[in-house]
Design brief:
The structure is a single chain. It contains 20 helices and 10 strands. It is an alpha/beta fold and 533 residues long. Helix 1 runs parallel beside helix 14, helix 13 packs across helix 14 and helix 16 runs antiparallel to helix 17. The chain is globular.
Length: 533
């Protein structure tokens, strides 16, 4: 990083999942979102970071790790359930080595999955001691990874700011959670859904945030128009620096149609033995209600559009990785060659993606990053990898401009989170937000321990209801019943807590209710409701 280059490339991965924690039952399939992400995204990333470290390859990458994700990774019940998930998958993979013995290609892949899940179990239990947060912290501490924070529960600022105190709380608790796990203050924040409103800047500033990531048009439509487009950060009048997503590099990676993940040699996400294997055989490994679901064991590659699916070949996938990292590398070299003479500072190409794209949706994604980072290190080029913080430190002078209200949702603004399928939820979220502020003011000098517990639980229920994930799920039409249930449950619990406090009706029956939801909705154990004052 010492030598100046003509330009820089900054990879930013957004690692987020909604807080899903059901100690009362193991039958919630949604808990597997976390387990799949650990096995397919977080562990593969850590494995590849470790390989780069051992090979003495200098690299830079930025990741947001959101507060709900950190709280789940730190949860003892979920850690035990992940180990059980792995043991179940190891058992299934062993059975697959027997079932597929007459099909050499399937059999080879069955052993591949057996080894992979067995290695996951070894890494999680023996190497990381069930604490992969520390794994990521290590790479931040040695200067290869910059971890940034996010809103407390991924609440969508462009709608929440109707009551700015709710945005302030999302930011404050996001920063506090980061400090708890990483022992330092975050310099950057991934705005939930890249949802930018200027009204949030003063709170970002108050809690020490230096920079944000915005969607492309957040920069291009900024006021005044930025001279260098997305190739240079801008700084708002409040002092918040904004980096904008580069269109070209993003499309190359995330598009399943004309991007790298659609390569015919890559693993096919939508063919899984959960659907393909005989029903009676696979039944113990699918949903408890008997519905077929993904198991993670997949034997086919994407193949061509009009061809029957062919078997996945690990070496062929690696060949495609080698070809595509070369293409990405050359594209950035040419891109920087074209713009370097037009910018005052060396240009920065910002490449933000959902972390789960790498490994979960695009199985080969973590290996693609590993191969690319080695190529950047060893090959002559006109660019280096950099984190946003490093870029700010090197080039502190930038244009003052207010980013445009924007998000990275479909069509660029707020319709994913506010439309006819989910608009009913917002009046409840806004009323609960107003009531939380009312409670914080009314009880700001409260000394009674029970009432303080109730007030803190009110804050947790509000925050969990505000998660943008529920609105997104409803819009997309996946797991809709679960998302609606979560909004209804958290608003219902909040309302009961609120009414009981106002009526001073904290009887024995209420305490049983309180203890139950404290166990279920145990996010942010150190929360202080006074943040809403």
């Amino acid at each position: 990083m010492s030598q100046d280059k003509n330009g820089y490339v900054s990879f930013i991965l957004h690692a987020h999942l909604p807080f899903i924690h059901h100690p009362e039952s193991e039958n919630y399939l949604e808990e597997q979102w976390l387990f799949e992400a650990i096995s397919e995204t977080y562990l593969p990333l850590l494995i590849n970071f470790k390989k780069l470290e051992e090979e003495k390859v200098d690299f830079r990458i930025t990741m947001s790790m959101t507060p709900p994700l950190l709280n789940m990774l730190d949860n003892k019940i979920l850690q035990k359930r992940y180990i059980k998930y792995l043991k179940t998958h190891i058992e299934l993979a062993k059975k697959e080595t027997v079932r597929t013995k007459d099909n050499p290609k399937e059999n080879e892949l069955a052993y591949y999955y057996l080894n992979r899940y067995s290695n996951d179990l070894h890494l999680f239990k023996d190497v990381f001691k069930c604490n992969i947060i520390q794994g990521f912290k290590h790479f931040q501490d040695i200067g290869k990874l910059e971890i940034i924070t996010c809103g407390a529960t991924h609440g969508y600022f462009p709608i929440l700011y109707v009551n700015e105190k709710t945005v302030k709380a999302q930011i404050a608790i996001g920063v506090q959670t980061y400090e708890k796990y990483f022992g330092r203050k975050p310099r950057g924040i991934w705005l939930p859904e890249c949802g930018y409103v200027p009204e949030a800047d003063k709170y970002l500033k108050e809690f020490g945030i230096e920079y944000i990531i915005t969607e492309t048009h957040g920069i291009l439509y900024a006021d005044p128009t930025p001279i260098y487009g997305t190739f240079a950060p801008i700084v708002s009048p409040e002092g918040i620096i904004a980096f904008g997503r580069d269109i070209e590099s993003s499309r190359q990676v995330w598009s399943s149609i004309n991007g790298y993940p659609g390569d015919f040699n890559y693993r096919e996400f939508y063919r899984d033995i959960g659907y393909d294997a005989p029903y009676d055989y696979i039944k113990p490994y699918i949903a408890c209600n008997g519905a077929r679901v993904n198991t993670g064991i997949k034997y086919y590659r994407i193949t061509g559009k009009d061809c029957p699916k062919d078997y996945y070949n690990v070496q062929w996938a690696q060949d495609s990785i080698n070809k595509q990292t070369g293409h990405f590398f050359d594209s950035r070299v040419n891109q920087i060659k074209q713009v370097a003479s037009l910018t005052t500072n060396p240009p920065i190409i910002v490449c933000p993606y959902d972390a789960e794209l790498f490994g979960h949706w695009w199985y080969e994604g973590p290996d693609w990053l590993y191969t690319l980072f080695k190529k950047v290190y060893y090959d002559d080029s006109n660019f280096s990898l950099i984190t946003p913080s490093e870029y700010i430190d090197k080039y502190p002078l930038m244009q003052i401009s207010t980013p445009c209200r924007s998000s990275w949702g479909a069509n660029g603004y707020s319709e994913v989170w506010l439309n006819h399928t989910n608009d009913y939820a917002h009046k409840h979220l806004h009323i609960a937000g107003d009531r939380m502020v009312e409670l914080a003011q009314r009880f700001k000098d409260e000394k009674d321990n029970l009432k303080i517990r109730v007030l803190n639980q009110c804050a947790r229920e509000l925050l969990l209801a505000q998660s943008s994930d529920w609105l997104f799920i409803i819009t997309n039409g996946t797991m809709v019943d679960y998302a609606k249930k979560r909004i209804k449950d958290h608003i219902g619990r909040f309302t009961k807590l609120y009414n009981s406090l106002i009526e001073d009706n904290l009887d024995d029956e209420f305490i049983v209710f309180l203890e139950d939801i404290e166990e279920k909705d145990c996010i942010f154990p150190e929360i202080d409701y006074k943040i809403y004052c």
